[in-house]
Specification:
globular, 6 helices, mainly alpha, two-stranded antiparallel sheet
Length: 148
């Protein structure tokens, strides 16, 4: 995986939040997504700091998106959790890798980085929600076909 487990969990949680602006508790999201609750709560707090989520304490509190899901990009989430330089550096970890001293994968990695960066600025949380809905429908169809 290119990014951390935390980023993967964050993207899954953001895609699971309701679009209507209601608040969801971290423990409920964690349970539904089968993720570790305290760890997810910490991740979600990081997204509050990045102004991707809003949080409210109390019995009717929880987390919700600060804006519609189609206006939050995957790239924003990655930058919030991984940092702005998460795609920089040598893919093989060589400290001297660069234009003057490229490693064997330097040019290939540069092309991949460009494509990934473009994709992350175009893909939104709404795209992840739609992908999840399609997967759920396909799973139901396969389950029903298996019972026939």
């Amino acid at each position: 995986m290119l990014f951390s487990t935390a980023t993967g969990y964050a993207l899954r949680a953001l895609a699971a939040l309701p679009e209507d602006g209601t608040f969801s508790l971290a423990k409920d999201l964690a349970s539904r997504l089968e993720l570790p609750g305290p760890y997810l709560a910490k991740i979600l707090q990081g997204l509050v700091q990045a102004d991707i989520l809003q949080s409210v304490r109390g019995p009717k509190g929880g987390f919700r998106l600060t804006r519609p899901s189609h206006r939050i990009t995957v790239g924003e989430v990655v930058i919030a959790l991984e940092g702005p330089d998460s795609m920089e550096g040598c893919i093989m970890g060589f400290p001297t890798c660069g234009g003057d001293h490229p490693c064997p994968l330097h040019d290939a990695w540069a092309a991949v980085k460009t494509q990934v960066a473009t994709s992350m600025t175009e893909a939104t949380i709404r795209d992840l929600q739609l992908m999840d809905l399609r997967n759920q429908k396909e799973f139901k169809a396969r389950s029903q076909a298996g019972r026939s």
